[in-house]
Write a structure and sequence with these properties.
heterodimer, A: 141 residues, 7-stranded mixed β-sheet, B: 297 residues, Helix Hairpins, Pyruvate Kinase, Chain: A, domain 1, 8 helices, 63% helix, elongated, membrane (chain A), CF(1) (chain A)
Chain lengths: 141, 297
């Protein structure tokens, strides 16, 4: 049967690229099977399997945690999310980032103290180095 | 002149340091290669999203998302990407200098500033510098996942949605090549025109498409797709910046450690010379003492 080009990419890497006969994915409106010559479509995917049927019926399954699917005349592109993106999960992640910022400013964790001490040592050694360089230069004159 | 034994032990300790720095150099070199691979691997996703976004924008010229509308800037947000660790030359301090320079310019125009720090060094810096830190990520490690950054990016996007900030910039170290990394500032929001609107003008595909319009079937509808895609696009830009910054960090560390190893070698040579002189002086002195003693007898 006729094949088409299929690319599955995530933010981190290329997951799949090659000639396929059919792509089956689950969009927000239901299951979607795509063959060569499918109407150009852009749709959002639900978390679930994306099945790829190679020429000859061999099947390969990729799990995506949501994303987008674009169909061009002879090409299918899946933009896969790299993680589950439920709304409340996003909010939880955001809260975590805010917490880290607060912690960083208040510096309640021991690790931050350590990091700050390190930064101060670095600054102090840089100052010392400059001083000794200056002294050397003056000594040589 | 310092005693021979002291110089000897100094040489020993510098040799140990040299071993450490040369090991760090090699580790950084291999990590850099891997970071470069990840850099390359993250490009297709951002490219595809950019293409799709510009399709939709062209097909729906009447709809403009908030992220595409310029507004008067009263407050600007910066996402500052730094490394987790030090010992990478002036990489982070150059970046901070660049940020402060930008901030000063904005403040002169009466614009206030908010920050988001990705990477431990950034958090430490803003703790000392002060400033309005909205979100932070620490300990990203060598191979952060895009999902780890979602939280911080989300905070900044929310701030943009609520009108707390009117523009969002991304600051990171551009990987020019192994020898040079350059801190750069890029505008994320509102999306620069060339990012979405003119991107496809080069491809033939788009030329034919703009004539006939994109006969796309959108599920559920174009606008909600665009909204979500734009968020993903910003996230992928930030992820790319983080990965690129890691490559820069490793390259900078590799060079810094190479210099340290070379310097240690120079110091060892100097000390060795001093040691030989001291030894020679001691022998000469002994001989002259013996000769002097023999003459006296």
């Amino acid at each position: 049967m006729a094949t088409m080009q299929c690319n599955i990419v995530s933010a981190e890497r290329n997951i799949f690229a090659g000639e396929v006969e059919r792509v089956v994915a689950i969009s927000v409106l239901g299951e979607l099977g795509i063959l060569r010559g499918h109407e150009p479509t852009l749709t959002e995917l639900k978390p679930g399997p994306v099945r790829i049927i190679h020429d000859g019926g061999e099947e390969e399954v990729f799990f995506v945690s949501g994303g987008f699917l674009e169909v061009q005349p002879n090409m299918v592109i899946v933009l896969a999310d790299s993680a589950d993106r439920a709304r409340d999960l996003d909010a939880a992640e955001a809260e975590k980032a805010r917490d880290e910022a607060r912690q960083a400013l208040q510096g309640k964790s021991g690790e931050m103290d350590y990091q700050q001490a390190l930064a101060e040592i670095e600054a102090a050694t840089a100052r010392l180095r400059t001083l000794s360089q200056l002294r050397n230069r003056r000594g040589n004159q | 002149m310092a005693a021979g034994k002291e110089i000897k032990s100094q040489i020993g300790s510098i040799k140990n340091t040299q071993k450490i720095t040369s090991a760090m150099e090699m580790v950084a070199a291999s990590k850099m290669r891997r970071a470069q691979d990840r850099m390359a691997a993250s490009q297709p996703y951002a490219g595809q999203i950019r293409r799709v976004v510009s399709h939709i924008s062209q097909a729906n010229p009447e709809y403009r998302h908030d992220y595409q509308i310029d507004r008067e800037v009263k407050r600007i947000g910066y996402i500052v990407v730094t490394s987790d660790r030090g010992l990478c030359g002036g990489l982070n301090s150059n970046l901070f200098r660049r940020v402060l320079q930008e901030v000063r310019q904005w403040r002169d125009q009466g614009v206030s500033v908010a920050f988001c720090a990705l990477g431990t060094k950034g958090s430490v810096f803003f703790r000392k510098y002060g400033g309005d830190l909205l979100a932070a990520n620490r300990n990203l490690g060598d191979a952060p996942e895009a999902s780890e950054l979602i939280g911080s990016v989300n905070v900044m996007l929310e701030a943009f949605d609520n009108g707390e900030i009117d523009r969002l910039d991304l600051v990171y170290n551009e990987f020019v090549n192994t020898m040079s990394q350059k801190p750069i500032v890029r505008q994320l929001l509102p999306l620069p025109e060339e990012d979405v609107d003119q991107d496809t003008s080069s491809s033939q595909e788009a030329a034919s498409a703009s004539k006939g319009g994109w006969g796309y079937v959108y599920e559920p509808d174009a606008q909600s797709l665009l909204d979500k895609l734009l968020v993903r696009y910003v996230e992928s830009q930030v992820y790319q910046a983080v990965v690129e910054n890691i490559a820069s960090e490793q390259a900078a560390r590799m060079i810094a450690m190479k210099n340290a190893t070379d310097n240690a070698g120079d110091i060892i040579d100097d000390l060795q010379l001093q040691y030989n002189k001291a030894r020679q002086a001691a022998i000469t002195q002994e001989i002259s003492e013996i000769v002097g003693g023999a003459a006296a007898v």
